[in-house]
Design goal:
Layout: H1 3-27, E1 35-47, E2 50-63, E3 72-79, E4 88-94, E5 103-110, E6 117-124, E7 127-134, H2 136-142, H3 149-152
Antiparallel strand pairs: 1-2, 2-5, 3-4, 3-6, 6-7
């Protein structure tokens, strides 16, 4: 083959690779499944006599995209439906940029009131990259509601112990 033809083909290949990679980077899209939840935990923070208190969510994400990713949001949605649908936006937390292979954590506080399901997502723009839906029993635990009624009742003061035969 002619050397000029090889050079033209090589140049055309480089230009095509350059434009496709820059278009990919500018579009803001990420490869599927490259951002994932590594861990999600909850804490219940009682607030006086208010039954539902405040919930604290701690989420850790893992970046397996092969590039630094920024502008990620941890978002929370709740529903009062008996099935996981009709989601209402509740809170958002912005993650700092996550380097390739890196892990980042974020904490958000919110009030859930009578919500039945919780949906936690990682979003970039309007694209949902990862999501977890928490069922009512998981959600009840994070709100401080337990199935065991004895744990929900206030603790009774202990009766003083006395020696046998001695009246208190």
């Amino acid at each position: 083959m002619d050397m000029k033809l090889w050079l033209k083909l090589a140049l055309a290949g480089l230009l095509a690779a350059f434009f496709s990679s820059s278009a990919y980077a500018q579009s803001g899209t990420l490869p599927p499944n490259c951002i994932t939840f590594k861990d999600v935990q909850f804490a219940y923070l009682p607030k006086g006599n208010y039954q539902y208190g405040i919930q604290k969510i701690w989420a850790q994400i893992h970046n397996d995209c092969g590039q630094e990713v920024s502008d990620l949001l941890l978002k929370g949605y709740v529903t009062k439906s008996s099935t996981p649908q009709n989601w209402n936006y509740l809170f958002g937390y912005a993650f700092v940029p996550v380097s390739a292979g890196g892990v980042r954590a974020g904490v958000a506080q919110f009030e859930a009131k009578e919500a039945t399901f919780l949906r936690v997502t990682i979003e970039k723009g309007s694209t949902v990259l990862a999501e977890k839906i928490f069922e009512p029993k998981e959600f009840d635990k994070m709100r401080g509601i337990t199935d065991d009624k004895s744990k929900s009742l206030p603790a009774q003061p202990a009766k003083p112990k006395t020696a046998p035969g001695v009246k208190p």
